[in-house]
Here is the input.
Amino acid sequence: MQIKDWQALWQGYVIITITGKAPERFINLAMVNGIFLWDISTIDQETLQAKVAIDQFKRLRGVARLSGNKFKILKKKGLPFALRRMGKRKGFFLGLAFFVIILYFFSAFIWFVDCTSIEKTTAIETQAVLKLAADLGLKPGVLKYGLDIKEVERLMEIKMPQLAWVGIEIEGTRANIRLVEKKIPDKEQSPTGPGNLIAIKDGVIDEILVIEGEGLVKPGDTVKKGQILISGLMSIEAETEGEQLGEAKIRLVKSQGIVKARVWYEGVGEIPLIEAGEKETGKKAWSIRLVVKDREMNIKGSADPPFSYYKEKITSYKPPKWRNWELPVEIIKISYLQVKPYTTEIEPSRAQALGLKQARESLINQIDPSSKIVASWETVEESPPGTVKVKVIVEAIENIAGFQSTVAD
Amino acid sequence: MKKKRAGLARRAKEIQAGVTEILEMPPEIVLDLPKLVLIGNQELLLQNHRGIIEYNNYQIRVSVSLGQITIKGEMLLLKNLKQDEILIRGKIFGLTLEE
Here is the structure.
């Protein structure tokens, strides 16, 4: 359909039939009078059919009289006639318009308010959140446009301090409040009651300093993990020697002190003497494919990878998303890079150096930075054949005392 | 005397045609000639006409300054009809110009 035809429909036109001895005369006369006729066709020898715009239609009467032909309206087309027909069925179209207006009107309100927490938590009650939102103006039946969402979000964050973030989304007539809850760290339980200091690691005691409590070990002792180093059970008699033995009393204290001990760490590094891997050869191939939902179609390039050993790299091009909706169409480019498997032998001395490095790295993760390293040994062995195993043992002095409460929780 | 005048008129026409050619002006405007644009055998645009003499399915005769143009064909349709141009659609097989 051409633009001209749309224009004709907009303005409205009539299809007429012209009958008479010489319908050509009618056409010529119309033309001379500046009446535009189009789509003229013959029906039979004395009848023609033509289209004419409604604003020029009236002037055809004079033309017909002068040319001695008759014309009749066959059909009325276009918007003006359609509107007139609509006018006859007023009720229906009024109802339709009313329906659309009502629909539009009601869609301007919020009818549902939901609340979801992004991380599932139970600490905040949904009811409380909804009530707060309602107090701030976000409740069912409220007009969408009068609502300042940013302001409601801000006030909610202020009024509910346990919320870290509030996001309100309005989708149609539904408002969704999304929450992120603040994580309040547990109060650190600083021990207050009586307790012992125990060894948290195996070691040999190097130095012991008792501040409170009763020291049970002395330098040179070997201690096992979990062994009591400084006891919170103090017999008073130990403090005041002048008293009699029979009146020995026991006092519970929160033991304090520093127990430094020698501890050993072990780091192991294992390096195989034969290294296997893949190396790119530099040969490349590619394929461009169209993916519609689950189906793939090769558009250009090689459909199957031309190499027996290869790595593939996939880049995808998707059409831009529109809101949450996206076209299930995607163009992907697959690059195939040919690779060649290879094996290299490593010299034992280099393997040893690598193993040492690996072992040291694993040690760094184990040892606390506050401990003091006193000595270290390295041993090299070729234990599983084909690999070099390097073991590094480090001796360090550190505080191994850890508090353990004697009061049952 | 009459003969001389006819000769003068012819002479004037010749001069006019010469001037048109030198100035490269479109002859259909200056000389009031019909211009026909034929697209394949399906559409004919005819400008500078002087009215339709005959019209039916298989033949259209149009009056022009030179005389008469007859278009023969099948299922001929007058797509547009304006004071200075006619657009004919259909299957055209013949086009004759009579003086």
In short: Residues 75 and 87 of chain B are 14 Å apart (CA to CA). Strands of chain B lie at 35-39, 43-47, 49-55, 59-64, 67-81, 85-98. The mean pLDDT of chain B is 85.
